[in-house]
Amino acid sequence: MTMKQSLGIGLVAAFWCLAGLPVEAAVELQSPDGLVAVTFDLKPVNGGAATPVYHVSHRNRPILGESRLGLELDSGPLTNGFRLVRETRTRHDTTWKPVYGERESIRDHYQQVVLELAEQRPPQRVLQLTFRAYNEGVAFCYTLPEQPALKAFTLTAEHTRFTVTNDPVVWAVYSAQGLYDRETARLKNTNAEVGEVRFSKLAPGVERPLTMRLAADSYAAITEAKLVDYARMKLRPAKDQPGTLEAFLDAERGRYGQVKGTTPFSTPWRVILVADSPGQLLERNDLILNLNDPCALTDTAWIKPGKVLRESTLTTAGGRACVDFCVRRGLQYIEYDAGWYGFEYDPKSDARDVHLDPKRNPDPTSLNLREVIDYANSRGIGVILYVNHLAAERQLDEILPLYRQWGVKGVKYGFVNVGSQEWTRWLHHAIRKAAENQLMVDIHDEFRSTGYQRTYPNLMTVEGILGNEGFPTPVHNATLPFTRYLTGPGDYTFCWTSGRLKPTHAHQLAISTIYYSPWQFLFWYDRPSQIREEPALDYWQHLPTSWDETRVLQGDIGKLVTLARRKGREWYLGSIQTTGRRQYEIPLGFLTPGQKYTATVYADESPDQPDAKGVRITTLTVTSATVLPADLPANGGLAVRIVPLP
Asked: Which domains does the chain have, with CATH numbers?
């Protein structure tokens, strides 16, 4: 159907609805390339009144079947009995440059339709639905416009549904820090070895994004964007409709969240990413950023990505040693973690001064924090301070200007409350307050980004991931790029010397390139005195944390990931795999034709010994015609630094 035809259908539908006659109000919206389509309709469901529904297709194949839409308000449900009043179409095509990111520029290209629905019976409230069709997928949101019949309201439920037309393979966790292969292992009829589960086996409480394999060449992911003043969306099976997930607004511990507001009011975007392959899904994750507002800051020169080392002794000597290590090893920040201002779980803890937690350091005189900050700044190293939510919630307006006065560069908010509208609003307020004081932000524990770093790029990274704090499996690691990292940066907290590491050291080097985080925490459980000056660590010394170009070369969820990223003229490549010893080839066709490069390859020393940690380093000359051989054990990896020859 052409745009002209679909516009005509919409206008005809509006006419007949205004005339009070029952009519299907089919409206189709296509992506700029014509491959993605979303169709809206008003249809009687289960014999009821006109109910809003939508479908999504990609390459003329269904992604989502007929899926219902609607909201539940304290003034009554907004779920059916509608007529289509107005249909407004727009086109958009711009390119913008992020302060930092996975790409130096991002195209924001879509077709949009805004549909105004009105109840056919009093009080004749009005609901707007905005649909956008991108080449990368579909997004939609609800808007309650300003209107006499609806001013202040409480939204008690969202009736958004996602219906699939078969029983696809999915990759699911039920908490932001869930382990993919363990979560699936507890369910029957699953392939826990690679984290797979069938859609029909999902339980309530699925995290977003939810990645699905609909066919060998058809993938999709359900997620949300621009969650700023609303309750977090999670997913659960619809009890009355097989093959369907419904959104539920999660507050805390599975309780249903409510949303209070006044008109005009818009919900976050509900997003369906589509792709031909897992790698293409990851390459399309800028859609989440495009659904957020442009940068609100006029001065961003103080926002600087970099690598971070945690100081764990809570001493002056330990801080100075970390600074010296960062200078020597090419890191840009040190972070004082929990305990520097007392016991972090004490509701009376005071983050305005140093009061050491005696369980972490019994000597109260051993840390002169101001001395460490001054020393770090004199050597070009920034200091980040951890603050638990208990202190941050009480003292935010005091501590942020104080930290800036001390010369601190950033804050790390820990164990933040997530889920409810109240705490979502507070956390984004805390990001904006940090920006007012020129402080960068890392948010830890269950919070997952939905693209707000475009609007406030001082939000450098968030956790919302099971990283090396929990020593996950290689299968988990090979799943994250196509699930968790679709939402934005993840603070994985890489380790090196710990004996609890399951993968090899070459695997660690590889995933530090595969995983994107503008603040990359390295050596999480390591102290400078424990880290040998081994040549393999040269890779981390050179590694950037923001990029000009990203290419996913190979992707098989839970099994194989190969990704290349460019910064300036240099390329960094990471590859990991999980299914026994495996030999494969990596074409370097992404390199500039005619240019020669020096490739330094960091590979597993013993491909036939998956428990070995040694790294073999080789150097070779490569071009865009080179096919790089890879020989990896089940938990291994390959990392390559590629530098152009003069």
From this structure: 3-290 (2.70.98.10), 309-547 (3.20.20.70), 562-644 (2.60.40.1180)
